[in-house]
Amino acid sequence: MSGGSQILRNINYRDDIGPVELLIVIYKECFSAAIPRTYFAGVQRSVFAPRPRCGPHKLRESLPLILFLRNRLKYALTYNEARMICKQRLIKVDGKVRTDMHVIRIDKTDETFRLLYDSKGRYATHRITENEGKFKLCKVVKKAVGPKGVPFVVTHDARTIRYPDPHIKGNVCMVTGGRNMGRVGIVGHREKHPGSFDIVHVKDAVGHSFATRLNNVFIIGRGPKAMVSLPGPTKGVRLTIAEERDRRLAQKRAI
């Protein structure tokens, strides 16, 4: 912890540091103790952890490929090994080769993954078939009319789609933010609060109801059926502590 402590001492000691310079100092460092809980990184052996690069997604919703290859898939032991895998152009994200830090495809091992949240709000390494990996779901964050009356929508990954189908609707959703992150259910009704956040009420597969903000809702299917396979044995249903205990005991008895 000496390296991280030294940086903190330097920041506190230099009272004359400007706001821009302070921002640069903080930007370059990412402490392993401060990484989001969605990273499933586990216990870090060093003070620092990989930091994702900015792209079409928000920084807090991104995951470094280094952690995906090293901590989850175990295809690399160190940062340099994971970097060499990326530089050999072996990793495809949404069908395109990515060499730096959706649907992730590794041709050499014939594996395809979709990055989704599990029922506890953590990134899950969900294996899918090659046919399912040919498409991805997008969330519309903006709709407008452009020049010459051309309607268009903007998705969460910065795609612009002209002439969208106005009849596309769905009511199966996954929560992508807040305390209910990762839960899946049917959209019930929506409460409008002008000047504040609109609230959406959702009911999961076992009948548990919860509420979240409209911005946290991501539609994943039409009617009661999801268009993508869901990770984990609970399929987006968050169990209570007692239910998790009973499930573990049942698994032990079955062994």
TrEMBL record:
Pfam families: 40S_S4_C, Ribosomal_S4e. One of its GO terms (molecular function) is rRNA binding. Belongs to the eukaryotic ribosomal protein eS4 family. Keywords: Ribonucleoprotein, Ribosomal protein, RNA-binding, rRNA-binding. The keyword Methyltransferase does not apply. Residues 109-171 form the Small ribosomal subunit protein eS4 central region domain. This is Small ribosomal subunit protein eS4. It comes from Gongylonema pulchrum.
